[in-house]
Amino acid sequence: MIRRTAFPVFALVIAVAAPVWAESPAPVDFGREVRPLLAEKCFICHGLDAAKRETSLRLDTKEGLFAELESGDGVAIMPGNADKSVVYRRLVHEDAEQRMPPAEGKPLTDAEIATIKRWIDEGAVWQEHWSFVAPTRPELPEVQDVVWPRSAIDRFVLKQLEGRQLAPSPQADAVTLLRRVTYDLTGLPPTLAEVDRFLTEARGGAAGAKLTTAEHGAPLPRLDQAYEAAVERLLNSPRYGEHMARYWLDAARYGDTHGLHLDNFREIWPYRDWVVRAFNQNKPFDQFTIEQLAGDLLPNPTRDQLIATGFNRCNVTTSEGGVIPEEYYVHYTNDRVSTMSTVWMGVSMGCVTCHEHKFDPFEMKDFYQLFAFFNSLDGPVMDGNKKDTAPVLRVASDQQQAELDELAGRIAELVKSMEAPQEQVDQAQ
Question: What are phi and psi of 13, to 5 degrees?
Answer without folding.
Answer: -85, 105
